[in-house]
Write the structure tokens for this entry.
Amino acid sequence: MSSGGLELPPGDSGHEGGPADAPGGAPGGAPGGVSGGVSGGAPAGVPAGAVSLAPPPAGSVGAGAGAELDWGADAWSEVRTRAQRAGRAYIWLNLIEQRLRAVVGAVLRPIYEPVHGGDDWVVAAAGPAGQEWVQRAVAVREVSRRKGYLLDPADDNVLSFLTLPQLRELMVQHWPCFEPYFDDRREIELALDELEVTRNVVSRNRALSRAVLEQAERASARLLEVLGGGSGSPAADRLPIDAVEDLVGDRYADVISVHPDRVRLQRQLPAEDLFGGARRLDAIGIGLNLLVQNFSGRRLVRLTEAGCRVRLLFLNPASSAVKRRERELGLRKGELSRSVEMNILHVRRVRAGLRDPSRFEIHVFDETPRFTAYLVEGESSGIAVVQSYLRRARGMEAPVLVLRGGGTRGSSRDTEHGLFPTYREEFESIWQDSRPVS
């Protein structure tokens, strides 16, 4: 009898492998109807009645079975890209949800909890319109309790189980309670609308395009700023700290981006964004082309008149180091020195047009140039662009590091192991040994 209670038909010696102790035989024999499922008999070398495990011949039905399970390099690359984008989006959504949960709790709890107590204040705040999803949140919490999913006692409350749309609904229903703290309800709702698309994609593990991710990051940064969770004004700090950078920044010291050359740097970080909001600008290099050739003299005057202090440190165009650099790059004699002289003359004209020239200092140094650096500090954050000099490559072609540094008012971020202070210290050391340009 088979496991289904049906008796198998007796085998035929012409289609079986013989008794169990015969070579190739099977206990009890195999039914004659199971002969490999291939018309025309079993393949050569396979006993009659056995099921062949050899791959089907090319062109036959089932020949391509399983091919869709094999991921090539392109498929893995696409999967990693999807995972990276979803991971970034999830971090932003997580921050928004936690911030909104804290805001809702801080505003509504003192109103409802004294009357209803415990977690019932959430039910009362939701009212009849939200009774269904609040009861669902209560049920999910009970299941999480029983199964041991609540790892942090601080999460053992109904508010922690409300989703982003539900938190938004509580805020909208009770807007008069939130209005004293936030200026524009419409701005909050528009930002949450933009995030809903990303939330839907991430929660269902679907593909997230770069455009939608960037839109979600902008909306999240704006929403965190409105809800009071930002660290400063993104308009003032041209490169606000990214949520992912804040979480994994310790892995890379204070390096926030790396570019293979200066062309790619300027696509992502134009000169206006780099220098535009500076309160302090220190630069060292051979000719400082990134500043002199990409930031107009008028703009530099306005920047200085607005309160920025500028210190520029050029390689002395008459030094032997310039001649060595010309030989390294294969330039004609005097070509590089004339270029440096032109840049120095340009910034001297800028300085001459200032009401207070003491805020704009120009020095030259005679040492072997080892790197070029632009140390730009705003009110609450700083950015440094650093390049090492390569033997056969112009500055435009050398790799670029972008560093996060402290602002003129200091920073709460740990810079003990960062590179920004290292280049700051090196700049100050060379500045002390340099000579001013009259």
Residues 1-9, 11-41, 230-238, 409-414 have pLDDT under 50 and may be disordered. The beta strands are 255-259, 280-285, 309-315, 360-365, 371-377, 381-388, 400-406, 435-436. Residues 374 and 398 are 15 Å apart (CA to CA).
